[in-house]
Amino acid sequence: MKHYIGASNPMREQFNPQASYVAEHFAWNFADGVGTVTLNRPDRKNPLTFQSYAELRDFFYALRFATDVKAIVVTGAGGNFCSGGDVHEIIGPLTTMTMPELLEFTRMTGDLIKAMRACPQPVLGAIDGICAGAGAMMALACDMRYGTEATKTAFLFTRVGLAGADMGACALLPRMIGQGRASELLFSGRAMTAHEGLAWGFFNDLYESADLLVNVQATARALASGPTFAHGMTKTMLGQEWSMTIEQAIEAEAQAQAICMQTEDFRRAYEAFAAKQKPVFQGD
């Protein structure tokens, strides 16, 4: 979860702001507590490279220590989200690598998903057009996903002779849309339509392409203005409770809620309610 560290706290220096981050392999914009990551190779439908995988992994990991960033939007440029690993810059070189080198690569790609899930900020996907392979896994790693009529999401690993088990797909996708539907998509590699994704719970909502990013950023701003410590706790518990029994989950949530009840935001919410005002949360 995201912990609030005040300016006078001696540990404050380890929490580095990311608002001014200068990205090399993707675009980064920050406003109103919301950071937007844009995969920006539109001429190729925004494929990933060895370098962009690594930078995205490191960036999402660094967000664990960024108290200025309250929510994240991930999107793609040029009407598409991400076409997966670049065929020429990744797929080709992989065919010449040794097993230890291949394992380094597959662990790196998985580390990106782990970093997205481990950062305390809510991560929202604004997903238009092509969303395939590793791009589909980045979408799946988001906490919420929003698409358009044109969005086509394909876990197409079997189309290139690989298992559907990639970057956590066999764990994450069944939990999102159910075992049978996930099995069909992972075995076939076919594209899931936007309306299938909405009906199956993969997408939270669909928008017109022209309205997608602005609507998702508005949702992110609403989250950023909320009790961000509590949001971080919610994300933590959503991840941890997968492996708990119901009894363990109920006890874990009792402890989590007791912690949140000690925050100033909890007090602010009560005082605002008593005064018939809207609370102004500060994340502490």
Automatic annotation (TrEMBL):
**Pfam families referenced in this protein's UniProt entry, alphabetically:** ECH_1 (PF00378)
SUPFAM superfamilies found in the cross-reference section: ClpP/crotonase
**Which CDD domains does this entry report, sorted A to Z?**
crotonase-like (cd06558)
The family assignment reads: Belongs to the enoyl-CoA hydratase/isomerase family.
Put simply, this protein is called Enoyl-CoA hydratase family protein
Q: Which organism is it from?
A: Acidovorax benzenivorans
The root-end lineage is: Bacteria, Pseudomonadati, Pseudomonadota, Betaproteobacteria, Burkholderiales
